[in-house]
Design a protein that fits this description.
Elements: E1 8-17, H1 23-34, E2 37-42, E3 47-54, H2 56-68, E4 74-84, E5 92-94
Parallel strand pairs: 2-5
Antiparallel strand pairs: 1-3, 1-4, 2-3
């Protein structure tokens, strides 16, 4: 991996059966395994939102993993946008629900 490449930010919204199935813990575990920073939180009844920063290849893998979700989940829709990294995060955290 080319660690001289600038980091990027990926903002993801996942809609489906994502409550009560360990989705946020699954997302945090994937992010930590890939060395990403950022956060994940529940948004409403059927949506999870995540922001992750890191190398583009790791973020692509993260999006793929999040789109698959844990076994008990069902991802109906995944929306994402690419942004410039801010470097504001030092870890990947599970945030309180909105």
């Amino acid at each position: 991996m080319d660690n001289t490449s600038p980091n990027e930010r990926l903002h993801i919204w996942v809609t489906g059966r994502v409550q009560g199935v360990g989705f946020r813990a699954f997302v945090a575990h994937a992010a930590n395994n890939l060395g990403l920073t950022g956060w994940v939180r529940n948004v409403g009844y059927d949506q999870v939102e995540a922001v992750a920063e890191g190398q583009r290849a790791d973020l692509d893998e993260f999006a793929h993993i999040v789109g698959a979700g844990p076994r008990a989940s069902r991802v109906d829709r995944l929306h994402h946008e690419w942004l410039a990294a801010s470097g504001e995060f030092s870890s990947f955290d599970v945030r309180r629900s909105l």
